[in-house]
Amino acid sequence: MFELLEVRNLKTYFHTENGIYKAVDDISFKLNKGETLGLVGESGCGKSVTALSIMKLIQKPGIIDSGKIIFKGKDLVKYSEKQMQKIRGNKISMIFQEPMTSLNPVYRCGHQIVEAIRTHQKISKAEAKEKSIELLKYVGIPSPEQRYNEYPHQLSGGMRQRVMIAMALSNNPDILIADEPTTALDVTIQSQILELLQKLQKELDMGILIITHDLGVIAELAHNVAVMYASEIVEIAGADEFFNNPKHPYTIGLFNSLPQSGKPKEKLPVIEGFVPSPLEYPVGCNFGTRCKLADKKCKEEKPPLNEISKEHKAACWKI
Description:
The chain is of the alpha/beta class and about 325 residues long. About 30% of the residues lie in helices and about 25% in strands. It contains eleven helices and twelve strands.
């Protein structure tokens, strides 16, 4: 399996007046060609900052404090802004959860795809327009010639997300990062977008990093899964192993809080307590303040991401 991306001991911190906000704290994972890695966790755990770090789009006072982002053998952390401009939207593309904030409302949809193409390819406007219309058709937009000339507000949420996907694919990227790509869409449109991403990956053989809090999305798309909690990866496994044999108490808590079919009125268990602030994470395990299994060691020593099997790791002293 060809390894496209390796994130190694990445730390992305925001240096604020109140202290150091540890948004991403020493995480590592790999993404292979033709595979989907699901990065899952609740809001505020560091998933989106991880994606923005890979794209080197962290704004001050944020910095990549340390670590490596190795793309096809080269460390992107060392790349200049000029070098990254050749990577973004070309070798690595990203789609966001709300396309209305990503598409420019005053430009026609097709023109925005043309701009993305011509930024990285030396082709004429006519050739870029033809390719844009082909891309709109490829991602399942009906009447692509008409949609090419329409503004974002004239399209539905699902159509706008397809335009974003067309734009992301315009330069045949090696990696597609999808940050909560279905959250703003209704259930039937969500399903269509997930099917589209599945289809595109099979046909284009690219690596996909999908970021979500929805385990249903992970079940649909992911080959491998990394669970984030409080800026750290606490468990990483193949999808089958993840769903059939979760090990970390936080991961088990996530599964236990899901509604069960046939039990509509049963009260769902919750993970008690609150996620600690990135400004003041506890000593020891970040989940130790909420974990029913936590003992003295858990609250004094940080557990490493230990190997359970060849494709399964978890950061817990109780495993």
